[in-house]
Amino acid sequence: MNPPTVFVAGAFDGLHVGHQWLLSVAAQLGAVRCIVGRDVTIFRLKGEAPKVEESDRLERVKGELAAYGSAHTARLGNASGDRMSTLKQINPDRVLLGYDQRFTEEEIIKALPNVQVVRASAYAPEYFKSSYFR
User: What are the phi and psi torsion angles at 44 (to 5°)?
Assistant: First the structure.
């Protein structure tokens, strides 16, 4: 039997130990399908460009996931910024949200009624929050 698929997404800008912890939690829940936000999407959501370009952020996330085995993958999100279409395309068994992500459990369940949504707790947010490093 295959492990459940786990969707996790984020900017992963300035990949830090909090991001590493989130990816490790995702790997414990199943086979990770990670979406790294596009530069244009991050700008649209946060009002400023990421400090690390998308291809470099993607490679860092892939490197982190490789430590947990070959069942885990990462790719860039779509440039349109339509997060729900990406989620529906992957059709995971579980969605892992970071403690501060703007998605709500309700909007995810509306898009995918049979998905399990898990909200991760914060890992030392007073030290490891990307916006502190800008």
Answer: -65, -40
- Six-digit token string for 47: 């009002």
CA dist 116 and 123 (Å) reads 21
pTM to 2 decimals?
0.89
The rounded Cα 40 to chain-centroid distance in angstroms is 16
Count CB-CB contacts under 10 A for residue 122: 14
> What are the tokens at 107?
């909007």
Q: Assign 31 to helix, strand or coil.
A: strand
pLDDT in tens, 69-88: 999 999 999 888 777 889 99
85 SS3 class: helix
What domains are there in the chain, each with its CATH number?
5-133 (3.40.50.620)
Nearest to 42 by CA among 29, 52, 33: 52
Alpha-carbon distance of 3 to 107, in angstroms, equals: 25
With H, G, I as helix, E, B as strand and everything else as coil, classify residue 32. strand
